[in-house]
Amino acid sequence: MFTIRGATTVERDCEEDINSAVKEMISLILKENNITIDDVISIIFSCTRDLKSCYPAKAAREMGFVRSGLMCFNEMYVDGSLKRCIRVLFFIDKSVKQKDAKHIYLRGAANLRPDILKDF
What we know:
By secondary structure, the protein is of the alpha/beta class. Helix content is 21%, strand content 27%. It has a single domain, classed as CATH 3.30.1330.40.
């Protein structure tokens, strides 16, 4: 088992923007890590407190994550932290070394981890 982290941001707190950003992020996580939906045990989502129009797990369900455990939480608030941010933590059932996981940080969230930034 190994884990994959990711994050993205949205321009607006609306279902359309959130679903689109989450689907983009999940698609890249699957592609870059050569995993399938069946490899995913569970996904934990967190959102900053300024996102409240929908659950990001809804987008994952629409993509076919119907057997994986999905949970959504509020991200801890810290003064000056990134706004309108959605983070994920995937738990993957596949024999891969943790050091080989490809974490995906998109849009404004790329600033969270400049050490692993990759252009997409």
